[in-house]
Amino acid sequence: MAGSRMKSWFPTTASPLIINAPMKGVANIKLATEVAKVGGLGFIQFGRDFEPGSSTLKQLDDELSQAWKLLGLETSKDDGSTLPIGVGILTYMPSARHFGETVVPILKRHRPAAIWLFAPSPETPETHSNIVKEIKSQGSPWNPKIVVQVGSVAAAREAATHGADIIVAQGVDAGGHQWAQGAGIISLVPEIIDVVRNEFPDREIAVWAAGGIGDGRGAAAALALGAEGTVLGTRYIVALESDAQDYKKKAIIATSDGGFNTVKSYFHDHVQGDLSWPELYDGRAIVTPTYQDHASGVPLEESQKRLKAAQESGDVSKLVTWSGTGVGLIKKEQPAAEITKEVREQALGAIAKVKSFL
Ligand SMILES: Cc1cc2nc3c(=O)[nH]c(=O)nc-3n(C[C@H](O)[C@H](O)[C@H](O)COP(=O)(O)O)c2cc1C
């Protein structure tokens, strides 16, 4: 049974499995461990600089050391015991080639239960298979599940070929970065499940769903589609423990009707001067006056000037807030543990309600 498979892979978790997305600038160790304490699967997000000596490497080491303490676990045992949280890794930067040399030793020391890979560059298609090999060949009892987030069926097939244990089907309702062209989870999740079952019959690969899931009703729908775990990103931005700036939390709580008031575009990166993402990926964020100017023809350079002026004057209404279309379901700031329990219980309630209709 699906529920028992996730429980056997992640023994500290409860069913249905609720996961916080590893989000840059949001998902810190406090948030991830609070999710883990109540039976969710918590993820932190590693920065994107893998160069030897980078400050993000030290931060990863420090955060994972703290995780053992925050969860009240013994760190010193090198017996293959697992740290019951996961680490997200953004893989599109050229420095990802240093992963084996710089990141693996830290991960091997702390033994997180899962490693989540997202957004390889099409120019270096070997990145994920190399990372998987480097993790699998590090020669210790630590054997994390490899999670790969994808936005297309073709990318899911590739992820399975590269050795993913779990494929996150990320639909276009998702907040933040994602495939520029894609589908919602309602069609993406079942098609990926069929491909995994039919084309990789000898492998044990699970599928999780992400994108636009704001509460337990969405989580129940994802389970009905066959997903064995539900990933929420935007909902956890407003967690008390999140690193997101206050104005972002307020913008999310104040925004409703996410299909109308959020938009998927390259503009959000470009206006902030971030040209590092491959063209394969764009991002979804709340519609702001800055975006509306762009949509009405204001040139990029002028938009960048206006954004800079807004930053300097503290006009936060013009700043970028990444968000999924589920934003209208998010009404208040809450502890991450409370979000996790609430979504899980609401999902169980929604499933019971469906049964009562039949
Ligand atoms: C603020 C923000 C930052 C994100 N950062 C990352 C990241 O660093 N790595 C990653 O794999 N996904 C990242 N994502 C995407 C999430 O993994 C996930 O697909 C998405 O949040 C799910 O959609 P939802 O926000 O509607 O729940 C981010 C999403 C948001 C909203």
The number of domains:
2
Largest sheet: 8 strands, parallel
SS strand fraction? 15-25%
Helix-strand sequence? HEHEHEHHEHEHEEHEHEHHHEHEHHH
What structural class do helix, strand and pairing data support? alpha/beta
Low-confidence runs = none
Name the bound molecules. flavin mononucleotide
Strand order of the largest sheet: 1-9-8-6-5-4-3-2
The CA-CA distance between the termini, in Å, is 22 Å
CATH names the topology of the largest domain as TIM Barrel
| Number of E-state strands | 11
- CATH architecture assignment name of the largest domain: Alpha-Beta Barrel
Identify the CATH homologous superfamily of the largest domain.
Answer: Aldolase class I
Specify the CATH class of the largest domain: Alpha Beta
Residues in helix, %: 40-55%
Radius of gyration equals: 20 Å
Which word captures the global form? globular
Chain-averaged pLDDT = 96
Q: Treating each run of at least 4 consecutive H or I residues as one helix, how many helices?
A: 16
Break the fold down into its secondary structure elements and pairings.
Layout: H1 2-9, E1 18-20, H2 29-37, E2 43-45, H3 55-70, E3 83-90, H4 99-102, H5 104-110, E4 112-118, H6 127-136, E5 145-150, H7 153-162, E6 166-170, E7 176-179, H8 185-199, E8 206-210, H9 216-224, E9 229-232, H10 234-237, H11 246-254, H12 258-261, E10 262-265, H13 267-271, E11 281-286, H14 289-295, H15 300-313, H16 336-357
Parallel strand pairs: 1-9, 2-3, 3-4, 4-5, 5-6, 6-8, 8-9
Antiparallel strand pairs: 7-11, 10-11
Helix pairs in contact: 2-16, 7-8, 9-16, 14-15
This protein binds flavin mononucleotide.
